[in-house]
Amino acid sequence: METIRLDKCVAQNYGCSRREAGILIRKGLVTVNGVPVRDAALKVSGADQVRNAEQDLEVVTREAPRYFMLNKPRGVITATDDSEHSTVMSCFWNEAGGLFPVGRLDLDTEGLLFVTDDGAWAHRVTAPSRKCPKVYEAELENTADPGLKEIFAAGVLLRGEKTPTLPADLEILAPNLVRLTIYEGRYHQVKRMFASQGNHVISLKRIAIGGIALPEDLLPGEYRPLTPEEAALF
Fold first, then answer.
1. Looking at residues 127-133, what average pLDDT do you find?
2. Which is the most buried residue in 56, 81, 82, 88, by most CB within 10 A?
3. Which of 231, 225, 229, 216 is nearest to 137 (CA)?
4. Residue 72 C-beta-side C-alpha neighbours within 13 Å
């Protein structure tokens, strides 16, 4: 019978990170077959009764698709393997194989990234026809021109492209800080949009995809499973 780690079982049920699940376990708040367990690495299966705070938890083995959100740190590449750089998969060292990133973030871009082993789900997230909104916060080299709101809302023809970008929503948060929502995923799109208007993106962070926002308490390099409700949005 297939098994999974106890901390993964708890994380899947509560939508928390593995680190948070480990804290609950080490406090003795989780029981397996009626016995308090403090070993987060203990393997459990569907035949075991896992409980937390008098509530039965479902033991989901790897037969079920897995969906994660990662707060991608800067300096790691969005790939499963690379000969020069660490990849986002290095953040998942204690997970089984088969996972891959959904879409991509540039090497120097941080923020929300989905990771899964469900190819059909990944396609629904990234399919251009779905026009899934992606929200970024960008620090700019120069003060943001208020006129960019109308320019981006009308679409921008980027260098080397034959069609303009889809209408995008720009919010100016501070003189050099903006929030941009785009509905497609062209190569270096956010950076190229601002560059086309004579400005330069100093730092970039994705904070939301679809209806899922990056939690403020999920630190760079940390991840947690998506809740069933979150995964069902796509």
1. 92
2. 88
3. 216
4. 30
Phi, then psi, of 32 in degrees rounded to 5 = -120, 115
Q: What percent of the chain has pLDDT over 70?
A: 93
Nearest to 113 by CA among 92, 138, 128: 92
Measured distance CA(164)–CA(154) in Å, rounded: 9
Which amino acid would we find at residue 161? Answer: E
Token pair belonging to 158: 């980027």
Positions annotated as catalytic residues are: 106
pLDDT at site 199: 97
Kindly give, in sequence order, each residue whose CB lies less than 8 Å from that of residue 41, ignoring residues fewer than 6 positions away.
5, 6, 7
Give Cβ neighbours of residue 229 (< 8 Å, ≥ 6 apart).
none
**Which sign does the torsion angle of CA 221, 226, 230, 234 carry?**
positive
Give 87-116 pLDDT, tens digit per residue.
999 998 777 667 889 999 999 999 999 999
CA–CA distance, 220 with 231 (Å, rounded to integer)? 21
Helical segments of the chain, H only? 6-14, 18-26, 119-126, 148-154, 189-195, 228-231
pTM listed for this prediction? 0.73
Q: Other C-beta atoms within 10 Å of 100: how many?
A: 17
